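U., I forgot to send this yesterday:
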Amino acid sequence: MRTEEIVAKALEKIGNDRYLLSNLVFSRVKQLCAGAKPLVDMDLKHNKLSDIAMKEIAEGKISIDRIDEKNL
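Result:
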């Protein structure tokens, strides 16, 4: 899947709010940096953390409620 398609799907999942998407990606990247395991089948060594976070959001595995639970 192309990056543009992943971003479009991620935006759909959060109500087309780009500001919310950027905050959600940032929060998830912080979690991944702190040692959280990716929820999608993407290698941390070969993919950017922001790409992993975006794909997790696009696939519906990460939502704003889930990020809030982690107290970030």
